Amino acid sequence: MTNGTETITWREDAGRDLVRSFGDRMALFVRGEGAYLWDDQGTRYLDFLAGIAVDSLGHAHPAFVEAVSTQAALLAHVSNYFATPPQLALAARLKRLAGTGESGRVYFGNSGAEANEAAFKLARLHGGVDRPRILALKEAFHGRTMGTLALTGKPLMQEPFQPMVPGVEFIDSTVDALEAALDERVAALFVEPIKGEAGVLPLPEGYLAAARELTARHGALLIVDEIQTGAGRTGEWFAFQHAGITPDAITVAKGIGGGFPIGALITFGAASDLFYPGTHGSTFGGNALATAVAGAVLDEIERAGLVENAAVRGTQLRTAVEGLDSDLVAGTRGEGLLIGVALTHPVTKAVTAAAQQHGLIVNAANDSTIRLAPPLTIGDVEIDEFARLFGAALATVADALLLDEPPATASAPADDAAGDAPRERKEPK
Asked: What is the pLDDT of residue 226?
């Protein structure tokens, strides 16, 4: 256990030693198990963010731990001059799950941004000099590297880093806007099936099917960013499968590694022939350790029926939120276990702070949307506890609004006298 002075010290260390691009860290977490985290004070939290849709199996899952330890003791890295069994097995599994058929190919990187960088280059290879235009959607998020930032339809994020990589144009998320923008000079369209960073905003009904038909008609690639929606999170292995289409490429990361850094570009059909030796590469991408862990995570998702669980628990979770009967909740949206809770007031920062006080981790996607992305392993117990804690957080903020007082910050989580804090809140000896 640490005392108050030591708690301040880690905050001072973080402020002094870490770059400021993330802002102040909200807690110092030291241990996790299942859907729970413990901070340096021994306080327990229910984690309904899962590392932003990363920890598919929760924390310290035996399949994850076994894969890391076994493969690390065997072989971690040899470079992409060579192949390894875990790399080949994972590529074959991803092709099967995505339904690429024999012609599919997989490129491995270390993150979602790297996967989207590879997809950007794929689009350029397809377009050449005759198709210099790339379309992306307003408010979409595809990464923070210079290439992926150019694909990200958020002007405020781009502004400090102008000029952007040229050739990207942003359109509204409507079929009419897409139809008007497409011509034979468009190399590719990039889309997120659900815009997670924009507030968990699904594309309009029928958009992906129309986008597939229109891009095919004009000879442009349809590239689907599945970084946040893939690995079973929406109740299908990949969100594009809800629409029954076949894209030209998808990008994946986050949940496929269950907490281990890995990303991938998966190509379909003729798009699989665009890369040739020397056009792209990665020193660490697809190393034996990362691919072995991702293979074990996907195997456990498949074995335990967690794709189906995401569909069932997502419906149950949305019902629980709507059943709280809070004046702050306007409704829910999303698919499976990627859910946006729309608020009636722009108070998401206050809600996330109050939730942390009550022992719950959620995320403010924007000023009026709370993002929920819990582990795919959650069940009745976790959802019941979430409803109790989230309801308490909403009540805390609602009371503060009524009194016209700011709610307490989350800098010092405390036990709740009314019994809304989670049980076993101290670290067991």
From this structure: 98
Q: Are residues 178 and 38 in the same domain?
A: no
Q: At a CB cut-off of 8 Å and minimum separation 6, what does 163 contact?
A: none
CATH code of the domain covering residue 91: 3.40.640.10
Residues 283 and 317 in one domain: no
Residue 225 within any structural domain of the chain = yes
Chunked into runs of 10 residues, the chain (429 residues) has average pLDDT values of: 58 87 89 97 97 98 98 97 97 98 97 98 98 98 97 97 97 98 98 96 97 98 98 98 98 98 98 97 97 98 98 98 96 98 97 98 97 98 98 96 57 35 36
- Do both 195 and 111 map to the same domain? yes
Of 279, 303, 327, which residue constitutes the final position of a domain? 303
- pLDDT for position 404: 58
Q: Which of 64, 108, 141, 190 is catalytic?
A: 141
Question: Residue 373's domain spans which residues?
Answer: 4-61+305-403
- Among 247, 134, 125, 123, smallest CA distance to 185 is for 134
Same domain? 267 vs 330: no
- Is 260 tagged catalytic? no
**Residue 285 contacts residue 107 (beta carbons within 8 Å):** yes
- 138 is a catalytic site residue: no
**Contact criterion met (CB below 8 Å) for 59 and 261:** no
Domain with residue 354: its CATH number is 3.90.1150.10
The answer to whether residue 415 is domain-embedded is: no
Choose, from 47, 225, 248, 420, the residue flagged as catalytic.
225
What's the pTM? Answer: 0.91
The answer to the question of residue 324 being in a domain is: yes
**pLDDT value at residue 24:** 86
Question: Do residues 111 and 257 share a domain?
Answer: yes
How many independent structural domains does the chain possess?
2
- Catalytically annotated residue among 254, 275, 386, 420: 254
Q: Among this protein's residues, is 141 annotated catalytic?
A: yes
Residue 356 lies in a domain: yes
